[in-house]
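User: C-alpha cells for Rhomboid-like protein 19, please.
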Amino acid sequence: MSSASLAGGTSLYGGGFTKLCKGLAVVLFCGHAAVLIFPATVTYLALIPSRTIPFAWNLITAGYLEQSTYGVVTSIIGLLFMGRLLEPIWGSREFVKFIFAVNFFTSLCVFVTAIALYYIKTEERYLYLPISGFHGILAGLLVGIKQIIPDQELPLLRIKAKWFPSIVLLLAMALSFFIPEPAAYIPILVFGTYMGWIYLRYIQTRPETKFRGDPSDDFSFASFFPEFLRPIINPVASVFARLLCGRSGASTNSHDYALTETSLPGSDSAEAARRRERGARALEERLAAERLTAARSAEDDPQRDAAANV
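Assistant: Done. Predicted C-alpha cells:
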C-alpha cells in the first residue's frame, strides 16, 4: 500500500465505485439471478457439507452465491461502499487476495464446523443445509475498516468504526433467536470476521516494508471486546495465535516489538499509525468531493428550472 497508490486511488475514483467492485457486484447479481431462474444452481454452487467432498469447488463458489433478494442487495451495497474505501488504499491486487482468502478459509471453517455439529448432535440437517452468501466477506471487510479508520464515527449513530465488526456479530447473534436456520448465517459471519482479522494481522503483504501484518495493540484480537474483558481474552487469543500462526507469527511480532522499542523508521507501530492516517485522509477527501458535487448539483438545478421556464 504505497502513498502513490493511495493518491492515485483517491483522485481517480473520487466519490464513485471502483471497477473491480462493480465487477464483483455483477457476479453477485448474476449468481442470484441464476438461483431464481434455475433453483438447482444451489445444489451445485452452495456449500452443502454432505456434497463438498465431490464438489470441492463449493468452498469457493458458495461465498459469491446469494439465495435471497435481501441478501444480494445488502451484499452489493456493502461491497460497493466498503470497497471504494479499502481498494484504493490496499490496491486492487491485495483487495482481490483478501476477498479470495477470507472466502475460502471461511467456507473451509464452516464445512468443518458443520461436520463437527453433525457428529456432536447427530442431526442430519447440518449435512444437507445449503450454506452460501457474501456476508462472510463483508464481515472481513468491516475488519479492514476497523484497521484503517478505527476512530472514524458513523455520522448518525456516533459509533466508531473500530466497533463495527463486534456490533454486527452481536446483532447477528441476537437476531439468530428469531430467524430460521441461524446455522446458515452465524458461522459465516463469525469465521468471516476472524479470517479477516487473521489475514490482516499476520498475512497481508506491505510492499513499503519488509514485514507482514499489523501487530499493533490497537488491532489485537482483544480490541474487538470491551476494555473490562480484555484481561480474560488476551491469554486465550495468544494460544489461538500460536496454534494458527506458529513460529512465523511469534517471530514477526518479536521482531516488530524490537523495532518499536528502538523507534526505527518503518516500524510496524509507526506504519500502523500512518496507515490509519492515510485511510482517514482518503475518507475525508472522498467525502469532501461528494459534498462539492452535491453543492454544484444544487446550484445547477435552479438554473435548469429557469431555462425550462423560458
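User: Anything notable?

Assistant: Residues 3-309 form a domain with the Rhomboid-like fold fold (CATH 1.20.1540.10).
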